[in-house]
Porin (Paraburkholderia tuberum), 301 residues
Amino acid sequence: MACFEQQSRKPPGPPRRATRRRKHEIEVEQHGGAPNLGHVYQLKDGGIISSYWGLKGSEEVGGGYKINFKLQGTFNTMNGKFGLADTQGTTAIFNQFATIGASGPFGTFDAGRRITPMIYAMAETDVRGAQYFGSILTAWLGMNQAAGWPGTSTNTPIGALYDSNALVYNSPKFYGTSLALEYAPGGVAGQFQGGTRESAVLKFSNYGLNLSAVYYNGHDTNPFPLTYPAAPAVSATGLANNRFIYFGALYTIDRFSISGSYSIGKNPAKSNSLNQTIIHGALVAPGVSTTAAMIGIRHTF
């Protein structure tokens, strides 16, 4: 009888940065031209996406099972600042992934901080892959800004890009259909539902067609007022104030792709308030509910 083990560890991609040169010119009417006021050179971090770093690895334990871990975070190459965390005004060294889990014939199970299953479902039914301007990601961020999110933490009022303490199960595919379930304990003493998150994602991918349905429910989300820390954060009491529902589809034939989606973000704690619909570029006032509809077409050369 022979025994062996196999290990693998892999770092993510390289940092991203760029240089930018800008010539300063100001129209001066009396001189009839624009004098040369010199140039400004700037080293710009990132680009289309942020710079990130981390480690991931797996170890086979036999029978087709593996133990996996992943550590990943964003950072600014200019000053070394790490990416945002759940607490307003703070950063975390691994703000995207800090998980450990197992995988095998049953699927995968991970525990820790991670990108939520709902984001993957949205990306897979968007022609822009939840990247760049005009993608489902910018629409979802717009919904959160309309709901009063200050953008200084990853704790959002509608859905979530990241969840901490998350327990996530991803099933194997069955004829193109897969299921993802998430539960994130809040860790609030004396409040069983304080700060908790729950979500369910159903996906289908086959014959060039991607379909996804998302249900996300959160308690005590976005507790930081715009004037924080001058005004204190709202205490976690188990208030259900974050519900997000999403339906999306993407179909690809030859080199053409078309996608469509409909999103509903709601604060169940304010069921008597007015609903509203948002459109890209339009200003809206914060309310109980926001919706966003997306249609996209893409051709790959």
In short: The longest strand covers residues 240-253. Helices lie at 117-123, 136-146. The mean pLDDT is 84. The first helix runs from residue 117 to 123.
